[in-house]
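Hi again,

Forgot to attach this to my earlier email, sorry! This is the prediction with pyridoxal-5'-phosphate bound. I've pasted everything inline since the attachment limit keeps bouncing my files.
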Amino acid sequence: MPGRNFLFVPGPSNTPDRIQRAMHRATDDHRSPVFPELTRAILPRLREIFGTENARTFVFPATGSGMWEAALVNTLSTGDRLLAVRGGQFGHLFIDSARRLGYRVDVIETEWGSAAPPDAIEEALRADAAHEIKGVLVVHNETSTGVTSDIAAVRRAIDAAGHPALLYVDGVSSVASLDFRMDEWGVDLAIAGSQKGFMLPAGLGILATSDRALAAREHARSPRAFFDFGPMIQQNDQGYFPYTPPVTLLYGLRESLDMLLEEGLPNVFARHHRLAAACRAAVEAWGLSLCATDPASRSDTVSTVMTPAGIDSGSVITTAYRSYDLSLGAGLGQLGGKAFRIGHLGDLNELMLLGALAGVELTLKNVGVDLILGSGVAAAQKSLGG
Ligand SMILES: *Cc1c(COP(=O)(O)O)cnc(C)c1O
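Structure tokens for the complex follow:
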């Protein structure tokens, strides 16, 4: 098909030309005397993106899921007890990873489409008077439902219970797109990946760790090898990596940090909010509902749209792709067939979004949704200042 694919899945996101050019180069010697310049242009600058002054940052050849594992095995011992919230597919997979790695996980089940409940977290931690629970696992932005949870409120709940558990936050679809305040929220392990807010291809797991998390490592006994922080810290401090790093992606990450910091993080967050609000206006104009029930927790990086009864969301996604070269996200887990997702994160502007919304609108009409062509696009234009 001529023209460009419209990539509106919530990850991978578009890779800007600038980042593509930064990665288009011959492979470097990762043991050269000048290699540390690259490492040092990345690891300390990642702190700003995570909202932290001093946290140690890591970059592993992996993806976001790999960072769930890295966060857990470096800070826990096999058999340790954890508390986790499950309100969507990524929460589910995080819990599943923890269980397969040998941890015992108490699960707080929430309605898919609602945010992590601080009250239930506080209650569960108060009930653990012996402080057996070593960590609380929460997804900041649940990419399956399009819900952003209030991590500050989760921190307040943990503090109110007077509980010492570490706070593990999956920020894979929020970090670098949404305001993330690791220090202020007392996040101990903040998890991200390269292919969402960082606008890179998949292949890097990105992690930030508090002093408490690093202290927990001293007595954590879980087996770990590839993801062991120890050799990584030792080598990173010299500007190197313990094994061959994906150098091309590191050049891309350096460029990504340049772009994010040049635009300015407050501007990046405001842009995501503006585009998300326009997308939500379109959905409302079509007469469809979002999976996220509480307007206050609707995500600025992804909108999960429920399809009307009798319409398979799979047909929306297939039609959009085949007819218009528009990639939308599928309904995941229990939302399979019932919802589709519009990703609006990363390297995106007003007209790209309007183009995608025009495509969604046309697709919905094609598959039999009763709507007025132009209604969603007009609502989005109005939201953008028309
Ligand atoms: C995409 C995503 C993941 C998984 O990341 P991979 O890079 O695909 O391993 C985990 N959590 C959330 C919230 C995500 O959006």
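The pocket of pyridoxal-5'-phosphate is lined by residues 11, 63-65, 90, 139, 141, 143, 170, 172-173, 193, 202 (CB under 6 Å). Residues 105 and 192 are 22 Å apart (CA to CA).

That should be everything now.

G.
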